[in-house]
Amino acid sequence: MTSLIVILALVAAAAGLLRWRRPAWFWLTFGVTFAVLRVLIRYGSVMDACGLTVPAARWRLGLARMTNRPVPGPRAPRILRVRPTRTGLVLRIKLRPGQDAFDVTASCDRLRHSFAMYGVTSRELRSGVVEVRMTGYDVLKRVQMPALTDTRPMRVPVALREDGSVHFRDYRTVPHALTLGATESGKSVYQRNLVASLASQRVALVGIDCKQGVELFPLARRFSALADNPDSAAELLEALVSHMEDVYQLIRAEQRITADVPDAGVAADIWDLREDLRPIPIVVLVDEVAELALFATKDEEKRRDRIITALARLAQLGRAAGIYLEICGQRFGSELGKGITMLRAQLTGRTAHRVNDESSANMAFGDIAPDAVLAAIQIPTDTPGVAVTGDSTGGWARIRAPHTSLRQAVNICNRHADLTPDVPALAPFRPALGAPAPALVPAVESAPAAA
Ligand SMILES: Nc1ncnc2c1ncn2[C@@H]1O[C@H](COP(=O)(O)OP(=O)(O)OP(=O)(O)O)[C@@H](O)[C@H]1O
Ligand SMILES: [Mg+2]
C-alpha cells in the first residue's frame, strides 16, 4: 500500500515537473489522455452552458408525448471525430439545424475555459461541419516544428501557428510577400528560417541586404547572387528584370500553339514547361527595404527610382517567370515615396511582427484584414518572433518561427551549397567565397589604442 502511494506521488511529481518545464512532453505523456476524457465527459453540459445546443426536433417531442416517455433535452452538435495531435486536440463537429459556424467561433473563449485548454479556434470545413482546434499548452512559447512536414517544391514550412498547425510559405499560391516589424522584432530570423527551408530545394536564392550584408552574407554559399548596398542592388534588380524577359521569350518559343496541342500542353508559366527546359525558380529576399527607397542627393534619387521600378516590374510580372519576392522592412508606406503603395499592393502575403504604432500595422493589414492590425499592435515586446500573418482572403493567424541561430542557418546552407545554381544573368553578382580579409585598423573610435 505504502509503495503504491509512493509510486503515485512520484508519478504526480514527475507530471507536475514536466508540465512546468516541458509542456510539450507533458502533453504527449499525460495531458492528451486527460484532455480527451475531459472533452468527451463534459461535452454535452459544456455545449449547453455555452449556448451551443438546439431544442429537440418537434417530431421527437411529439413522439415522446405520444408514447409517454420523458421529454428529450436540447441537443449539442454531433461529434464526428476527435483527433489528438502533437500539440492539442482536433474536434470535428456537425452542426444542428439552426446553428452556424459563427456561433462556434463566438464561443471559442468559453470553450477554452470550460475544457481547460490553452487555446481554441474554429473554422468551417464545409456547410454544417466545423473543425474546432484546441491546444493543450502555449505552443508559441518554445517553438518546436514537427519532424515531418508536408514540404513540396516551392512550399516550405516556416513557422508554427498558434493552433499548433504548421505555417507554410507557398510561393506557387502566394508569389510575393511583405514582412514588417519594429527593430528587434524577429524579421531577420523569420527570413533566415525561409532560407534554411529553401536551401534543400531546387531554387536559386538572391539576397539584397542593405545592412552591409550582415544577415545574408554568412549564408553566401547557398546564394546565387547577393548585393549589400543600394548601388549593386539596383544593378542586380535590373539584371533580374532582363532575366525575366529572357524567360518569357523562352516560354513564347515553347508555346507553339496549334490545333493539335492539348490544352494542358500550352505553357503560360515556367511550371508548364518540360522539366528539362524549365528555368530555375528564383526567390529574391530583400532585408531592410526602406534603405533602397531613401535618398539624399539627385543621383541617389535616380537610383531609387530605378530600384523601385525594377521591384514593381518583378512584382507585377515575375510570378509566371518563376521570380518570387520576399520583402522585409520596418515600415513600407507612402512616406517612402512614389511607387511604394503600388508595389505593396502586389505583395499578397503579409506578415507583421511586433510594431510600435497602428500606422505600421496598417501598412501590412489595413487594406486586407483590419482586425489583424489590432492583433499586431498587441504583440508583447518580450516575445520576439511572434507575428500575425494574413493573406488576401481576409483570414489571419498568430505565428512564430523557430529560433534558428545564424550558425545553424550557415551550417544548413553550407550542407546544401552544391545545390546553388548558376544563373548566367546573375553571374556578376555571385558572392565571392572565402574568409573576409582581416581588418588591419580597429575601425571603432572607442577601441583601445595599441600599446
Ligand atoms: N522566432 C524567434 N524565437 C525566439 N527568439 C527570436 C525569434 N526571432 C527573433 N528572436 C530574437 O530576437 C532577436 C532579434 O531578431 P531579428 O534580428 O530577427 O530582429 P529584426 O526584426 O531583424 O531586427 P532589425 O530590424 O534590427 O534587423 C534575435 O537575436 C533573437 O534573439
Ligand atoms: Mg533584421
UniProtKB/TrEMBL annotation:
Q: Is Hydrolase included in the keywords of this UniProt record?
A: no
Q: Which Gene3D superfamilies match?
A: P-loop containing nucleotide triphosphate hydrolases
**Which residues of the sequence carry a binding annotation for ATP?**
181-188
> Which InterPro entries does the annotation name?
FtsK/SpoIIIE/SftA, FtsK_dom, P-loop_NTPase
* Keyword hit for Nucleotide-binding: yes
Indicate the segments forming the FtsK domain, all copies. 163-362
- The membrane-spanning stretches of this chain are 24-41
**Taxonomic superkingdom:** Bacteria
Q: Which UniProt keywords apply?
A: ATP-binding, Membrane, Nucleotide-binding, Transmembrane, Transmembrane helix
Name used for this protein in its record: FtsK/SpoIIIE domain-containing protein
